[in-house]
Structure formats: C-alpha cells, structure tokens
Amino acid sequence: MTHYFSAHGNFSRISHTLSMLRLNLSRTTSAHLLRQASHLAIGFGSQTGTAMTFAAELSKEAAVHAHTASLVAANDLVPLNSLPPDAVLVLICASCGEGEPTDNARELMAHLEATSSSLDGRQFAVFGLGNSAAYPERFNVVAKALHTRLVELGGEPLTPLGLGDDAGLNGHWIDDDFDAWKDSLWTALKTTSQPPTKPDAARAPGVVIATHASDAGRAAREQYHAHIEHCRANFPVSLTHPALLKTSCNIELHAPNSQRSARHIELDASATPLRYATGDHVGIIPRNCSAKVARVLDMLQLDPHQFISVPATRNPAHAAIVHGELVEVPTAVASIFEAHKDLTGPPSAAVLASLAELAADPGEAAVLADRAAAARTHATLDGSEYRPSLADVITDAPSLAGRLALEKLLDIAPPMKARFYSIASAAEASPTQIDLTVSVLRYGLCSNYLAGLEPGSVVRAFARDSGFRLPSDPTLPVMLIGAGAGVAPLRAFWRARQMLRARGAALGPAHLYLGCDRRGVDDLYADDIAAALSDGALTTATIAAQHEPSPSGAVFVQDYLRQGDHAARVRDLVAAGGSIYVCGRETTLGVGTKAAFTDLLGNQVFDAFVRSGRFAQDVFA
Using CA atoms, how far apart are residues 334 and 346, in angstroms rounded to an integer? Predict the structure, then answer.
C-alpha cells in the first residue's frame, strides 16, 4: 500500500446509482465501449477539463497509430478486471485541493486501495497534471500514487510516469510535458509491422452526429431539461451536475482612475442545494459570447438552429464530447457552441495545424501554419502577449467555409473548462450567498463572462473543497496575506471572525497584509477592512502599495514582513502556535513571502512550520 493511501485514508465511493445516471457517461455505456476497444482503455480524472482534453486528444490519435481507443471518466473503469484482457490501461489524472483525486477519479482510487486482485502483467501508462510552483509538496501526488499502486498490483508500466507541470516556469508548459509523454507512449506501442506514423489532425475522424427535425428536437430537449432538473434536485452539486445560481450584484471594485478592473459579484444559491465552507473555491462554467458563436457559424455556413445529437455509442473516442453533459439528446448547434465548446481561448498547435491543412487559400493556410509553429513554443506571430481565440482564427480564414464541417468543428473545439475562484464570503454569515472577487483579464473568457453578468443572470457553478481553513481555535493568532483579487478568501476569513465576535467568542490577533498598485485606487474592500478593524475581527491592516513606497523603502508585502515590528510579529505568531495564510500569484507573492519567512525564521524553523500545517497557500501561477 502506498504512502498516499495511508496518509489520506479511504475515499468514499460514489454510489452505483449516481454513476449509472451520470450524463458524461453511464456505466452501462462505458462497459459497452470498453468491450469494443482492442488496445487503449483511457480514463481521465479531470476537475477543470484539461485532463479530459488531453485524454480526448490521445484517443483521437490512437486511430492514426493503428490502435483503437475508448474514453471514459476514471471512475467508470472500475472494476479494472472487467477490462478486456489485451487492453492497455491509460490514466490521465489531475491532483486537486490538498492532493486529492478529482471527483471523477475518486472511485478508482478507492477501488485500487481496496482491491487485492492482481493485474497479471497488464500494461499501463499514467500521466499526471499538477503545479510544482503552487503546490510543491503535493505536486502530482495522485498520479504518483496511481503509478505506484498499479505496479504493486502486478501491472507493467509501458512508459515512465509522466508528470505534467502547469507552473509555466522558464517557458516550459504542461502541453510540452504531455507531448513528450505521449510520444513515448506511441513509441512503446509500436510493433515491427507498424511503421512510425505522424498524426494527421486534418484527416483524423471527426465526431459522428445525428440530425433531427426542429419539432422533435424541441420536444426531446424539454424532456432532457426535466431530467436535468431531477438530477440537480437529487444528486450532489458537482461539475457533472452544476447548480444554477442567480446573479444578485455585480459592481466594480477599483476607482474610476485605475488601470485595472476587478468585480465584486454576489451569486444567490438559496434555490439550490449548493453549500460551501469558508475558504472553499467555486467552479464557474462560462459561456461564449453568442455574437461570437454566430459569426463563426455564419462564416462556416452552418445552421445555428439545426438540432443535432452526438450518440456516445457511435463516438467511443469522443465520449466526453462536451463539458459536463453528453449531447445525446437533440440540441441546437448554437447552444452547443455557446455553452459547451471553448471558442474564446487560443487554439492549440495541433488545432492550428489541422485548420492549416483544411484552408483552401494558400495565404490563409500559410498564416495558420505559422501560428501553429509559434504555438508550439508558446509564442505569437507579432511578439505580443495576444494569442487570437479559436473563433478569431476561424473567421480570419474565410476559405475554411465549406471545408470545416460541423463534425470536424465539434472535434477540434475543446470542451468548456470550469474556472475556479476563491469564495470571498463566509458560510457562517451567508451560507446561501457566494461572493466572488474577479480580476478582469483582457482576454480572459470567464472573467469577462462574469464581468458582463446582469442582475438575474444564471450561472452554472459548483463548490470545491480548498483545504484553506481557519484554525479550529479562534483564539490562536493568524496572519492573512494577499494581493489584488487574492484578498477574496481573506475577506471570507475576517467575515467569519466578525460573526464569531458578534456571538461573543474570544478572538486571537489577526494581522492583514494586502498588496496593491495605489492606495485609494486599487486597495480592494477598504470599507470592509475598516469595519473589521473597528469591531475587532482584524487587529491590524497593512497596505503595501507598489507605486507608493513606505518611508522605510518597503514596496511589496514581503518587504514589510522583513522590517521592524512586522518581523517581530511574524516570529511571535510562529512561537504562539499561530497560522499564516497566503493568497495571490505564486511567482510573485508566493515566492516573495516564502523567501521573507525563510530569512526571518531560518530554513529549519520555516520548514518545520510548513510541515506543521500552519502555513497555508491558495496560490495560482
């Protein structure tokens, strides 16, 4: 048994009934698909959709390499002894939270923990998705545990364990890790009778669809919506069954003269079963702009009102064709691309190469090929940060009209991924209201989607345990450190302390440190902070303004921490059994605060402090 399983304990199994009713793939359908596979039984453990996208890419390339493949959620591979004897087991799984498996891989982890059945030499390959900068001590812990356990059970690894790193350090990205691991897998699977073959993305099979008359499609869709409502009422809220939250507030947090934009958004969950704990994340499933979708469909001469379905049994390598739901009931083409396919993100090098081969105009084909070459090194044609969206790339190449068929567009457009935000409200104060603090990025799909929400707009959402928690003893001292929108979970924490204070609880000291550009312009929630200081939920608040250095020369939060009373405060807190919380960008705030604490406490003391669990980070790359 691995250290992972002994440290994390048993994972509760998701009920058989829930697995049977899952919209992304039923167990009955999964078994049928796996019986058809002669080589690769691919399972994904995906929280945001990246692992699922990688798994779909691998399954589509299998045919080019003379293999067959089936694609299912990792849970639907259970029990492993039901797989065909000659099937190669391929797992592509992310780690999330405190090194936990994703929801759609938990049952597989529990199965592997409990089973003693030998794999009898079954060949397998594992690729993990993690972030070495954000969570170095928990980097790819799930993939490592899977690989180790499969070996313990008698499996034979076809390739070394693949460890994908999403930190983006030194120009290296997780796509590069996946491509290298994927190449090693195809090399391992080659036989003397199977010469090396370069995947041809343009000629790879597309999605098999069925078309339906409008009246029949609408009737089926109404029945489907009734089924969805039944699932939302009777099953836990998750990526597969997101809750529908109503927008009740959406306001700008920065001053009008700021160069930045951040929105305070309040979502009403009172009519749903969605609940959360203070410090949790919320997953938001965005939508493409309807006008952008209309432009793409119009240029490609595709009917937005045509009802289609994508039968799972006819698409074994595309079983996860849309995010969260299979389109197995008639759905309008425009609805699929608005809600389930990401047309706003920049396309991958493989998609660009596919479009280059499809373009009829040589000039357009050359531009697309150049974009594909640049995308392989994560560069752009003009050297700017902007990488055009898939929608822009398609509409800039009119010769794709009549050549980029609906089936192929469904195949190459990636599934819509959930984006995660730290919840800025406290469950103790507002258990049915979820507050978000959203930095609006120039080209960000989800942030711009959220920024444009009007009161009453409905948002698909689900909560995720972050492991970011205040001490159970409120009298212990805490230090809350953030920058920009990283204030979100810290606001949740001081609001929870305000509720405790209102109920008469004794509170230990709470010291807040926030980084921003300019005071009075970019310091978010200034009024909230003043109220928390007034009622004792916060003891001190220090604002580090990048463009307004302090008299001592301090610019960033980590500069303040090294100086005078601030440094003494850190040492006293550690000695008193307190906790430190950091939320913000790992490459700046995360790295900077760790360096400051190491300088103040020394390597041994800080390492022991981290191992004690009293140093918590909620950071992003």
Answer: 20
